[in-house]
Design brief:
This protein is of the alpha/beta class. It has a single domain (3-233), classed as TIM Barrel (Alpha-Beta Barrel), CATH 3.20.20. Helix content is 47%, strand content 15%. The chain is built from eleven helices and eight strands. The protein has helices at residues 3-6, 18-28, 39-54, 70-82, 96-109, 126-131, 138-151, 164-171, 198-204, 213-216, 221-233, and strands at 9-12, 34-37, 60-66, 87-91, 114-118, 156-158, 176-179, 208-211. It has an eight-stranded parallel β-barrel with strand order 1-2-3-4-5-6-7-8, surrounded by six helices. Strand 4 (87-91), helix 5 and strand 5 form a beta-alpha-beta unit. Helix 2 (18-28) crosses helix 3, helix 4 packs parallel to helix 5 and helix 7 runs parallel beside helix 8 (164-171). The longest helix is centred in the first third of the chain and has 16 residues, at 39-54. The chain is globular and about 45 Å long. The relative contact order is 0.15. Bound molecules: cytidine-5'-monophosphate. Cytidine-5'-monophosphate (C5P) binds at residues 12, 14, 38, 121-122, 158, 180-181, 192, 210-213.
């Protein structure tokens, strides 16, 4: 097995510049498990750019965060599966019918496609949740939504490092846990508030670690990715 088959690290290519994304993707490819393209990339560069990232031959996670009526989300899910992404996500708060529609539509194009639920955005604290009519604390809401995602046939959820253990306990083994907010020891945490190191997040039970700037903004992204890979083996 090569390092990249076993690595849980997916590099977030958060840029509206395709050449930059391809340069970083090629540099880190030997050291990571996959690449993530998000809303900035998808909106600025479109489907052809996603195909170019898929052609780098690493699994691609499309961080689409779909949230609409079931019929519309089903159409978008077929479209993202047809581009060759291996994982994409939708908001669990869109409800069971929307999640089932997404999973079924994606599977009709690629039976192996993983559909992941976004629980509570880490930018939303208890006060923000209350302002939109959601009375329970963020942690309770994350667990409620993770259980609903599992019951609705999704393959896993996105949650913050602090919630990995809670979700693992609530949803059991085999349910994918994807976490951003991961920072190598001693690195700049930037705007991420609650962080764990890659090794801590993996130990807590995360399956996929989404890491952006600690790799993409490093002077040598390949070296940064290799160092993270080494820290996970230690
Ligand atoms: O650069 P950094 O490592 O903070 O990037 C983290 C990635 O994970 C970004 O693409 C960001 O959009 C994404 N993300 C996040 N927090 C969430 C959901 C996604 O940081 N709650």
């Amino acid at each position: 097995m090569t390092a990249r088959d076993s690595s849980p690290v997916y590099v977030a290519l958060d840029t509206p510049n395709l050449s930059e994304a391809l340069r970083i993707g090629r540099a880190v490819a030997p050291h990571v498990g996959g690449l993530k393209v998000g809303l900035e990339f998808l909106t600025a560069l479109g489907p052809d750019a996603v195909r170019e990232i898929v052609a780098l031959d690493l699994p691609v996670f499309a961080d689409t965060k779909f949230h609409d009526i079931p019929n519309t989300v089903a159409g978008a899910s077929r479209a993202i599966a047809a581009l060759g992404a291996k994982i994409f996500n939708i908001h669990v708060s869109g409800g069971e019918a929307m999640m089932r529609a997404a999973k079924e539509a994606a599977a009709s194009v690629d039976p192996a496609m993983k559909v992941i639920g976004v629980t509570v955005l880490t930018s939303m604290d208890d006060g923000v949740l209350e302002s939109v009519g959601q009375k329970s604390p963020a942690r309770d809401q994350v667990v409620r939504l993770a259980k609903l995602a599992k019951a609705s046939g999704l393959d896993g959820v996105v949650c913050s490092p602090q919630e990995i253990a809670l979700v693992r306990e609530a949803c059991g083994p085999g349910f994918l846990i994807v976490t951003p907010g991961v920072r190598p020891a001693g690195s700049d945490i930037a705007d991420q508030k609650r962080v764990m190191t890659p090794a801590e997040a993996a130990r807590a039970g995360a399956d996929i670690l989404v890491i952006g700037r600690p790799i993409t903004a490093a002077a040598d992204p390949a070296r940064a990715a290799a160092d993270i890979a080494a820290s996970l083996k230690a």
